Amino acid sequence: MEKSLLKIKIEKVVVVALFLGIMMWWNTNCVSAANYDVWVGGKQVTSKNAKDVFGDGGSVKYNASKKTLTLKNALIQDAYTVKDSSTRYICGIYYKVKGGTFKIKLSGSNNIFVPYDANAEFSYGICPHYGAAKMSISGSGSLTLISNDATRLTAGINAGRGLTIEGKAKVDAQTPSSSTGMAYGIYINNKVTIKGSAKLTSYGTSGAFNTVISFGKGYTPSVKAGMNSNKIMLKKKKPSKKTYKKYQYIKISKAKKSKKKSSKVKPVKIKKVVAMKKRFNIYWKAHKSNCSGYQLQVSENKKFPKKLTYTHTVYGNKYDGTGVKGLSSGRRYYIRMRAFSAGQFKNTYGKWTKTRAVVAK
User: Fold this and answer.
1) What's the rounded mean pLDDT across residues 76-92?
2) DSSP bridge partners of 135
3) How far apart are CA 76 and CA 110, in angstroms?
4) How far apart are CA 144 and CA 232, in angstroms?
5) How sure is the predictor about 118, in pLDDT bands with cuts at 50, 70 and 90?
6) Which of 51, 93, 248, 354 is found 20 to 30 A from 71 (Cα to Cα)?
7) In the beta sheet, which residues pair with residue 250?
């Protein structure tokens, strides 16, 4: 009886193990992966391939919860074909993610080359679906986008609801040729915002941008009439934003803060005054710039009246000391200094130092 019960128990354990094994096999092989509304190089991102979309070691990854697509030295040479209301367009990266921001994070050097398709009406390096989330590109890497010809419109980036480039990201959007349709580096219905030390270069044969855009605060654009022409810098005299539409090539980067040289002459810092026999020596910190020399006044009255005041001039900003002799032993003298900068018509003077007193030995 005991042996038969043991046999039943063993049989039950075997049945349970077989059942669990079948369920695990079912979950692994029969349950389909979740599809995400993101396509990269013609391949849809799923929960199965999200950690390594191309199976090449992780050049393209996607985090669905954070809506973040990470590119690390990625080379994308295929495109996804979209048929939307009988309109046919191809995209290197295409997404339909809604709400918030669709983020593209760059690491290393990344390239998107959209192949030529004779039947394509629109061709884009990156393109969101109509009504999809706005786009953000960040990270420390670079991204070059080159789109080929299309019958109606081609652009390196179709930014849709808006584009933000931030961090240290470098983005170069190009449409080098278009024989049939319009071609822009960036096609946008909203605004481009640049933050941090990010840089953006936009080039299109029809224009860098399709509309008047506003850049981030502190960013200065430089433009070219074409790829092979000389740069026209817009730092001194900035034209109206409308003129940006006329240019095919625009490079936008953080404006370098120019160090303005102050016209003011800095006050002199006296280091020490040494009393000697019927004289004294005075030492100060020499000025490196905006200084032609120094004036030293010695007076028997602390109000420095003209009749009782002697003015000694030291020419040259490299000097940091001088001496005054011919004084009366035991008499108190008052001294003060200032620097000056020689001009074409008149000199510019700094402020006098605080009055010091010295008694000649």
Assistant:
1) 86
2) 102, 163
3) 8
4) 23
5) confident
6) 248
7) 202, 223
